[in-house]
Design goal:
4-stranded antiparallel beta sheet, C-terminal processing peptidase, 23% helix, alpha+beta, protease, 2 domains, 5-stranded mixed beta sheet, Peptidase_S41A, serine-type endopeptidase activity, 31% strand
Length: 254
Amino acid sequence: GDEILTVNGDDIRGKSAVEVSSLLQGPNGTSVKIEVKHGNCGPVHSFEVQRQLVARTPVLYRLEDAENGMSIGYIRLKEFNALAIKDLVTAMKRLQEMGSSYFILDLRDNLGGLVQAGIEIAKLFLNEGETVTYTVGRDSQYQTTITAGAAPLVKDPVIVLVNNKTASASEIVASALHDNCRAVLVGERTFGKGLIQSVFELDDGSGVVVTIGKYATPNHMDINGNGIEPDYRSLPAWNEVNKHISQCKMLRQG
């Protein structure tokens, strides 16, 4: 397959998919220069391509009134694409300005997308040093601990809605918030997709997908094939959410 080497002269080797997507983005109609290598030992070609609108915002949000007089910031995240992080941050800040008391993050029917986007979104809710996820594999390079590196954007508990089509990056976000006592999960057991896979090119030009590792939750639970069990089947009262979060923190402290 073809491999992008540079974007506007910037070497992208070692950069995440989110970082590369950011370099490729720009105003509609403008151009970007890329260098592409064909195959493992193929020639390098330079191209100038015109940017066009391709990604739509995956974020829908609104302010709702609860029976207890509090205001709920409802956010639905449909997928983890190149716009997910920026648009989610915008939605959260806007809802806070509108007077949101707490957030409901709706991950139902979200089958995933860019895993790195999911990891970065989970970090928005976690304290510095808290674990987002573990990667587990036979090779040591796939045995890592991914942690948050800054203060959270919001500190209040979050209600995360999940169902049997909540998968992959969505499960990383849900488990990260749940296991760090930042959220309660409401709905159905999630799908259970937690494999790390890579495509290896064969001599005949075809490729084979190989599983090189798996994602595990901060509580060391294997996501793949198991999914994540919710705390509640239906939406709990806010005082019940606070009680659940407090009990979670007490158990973590021992």
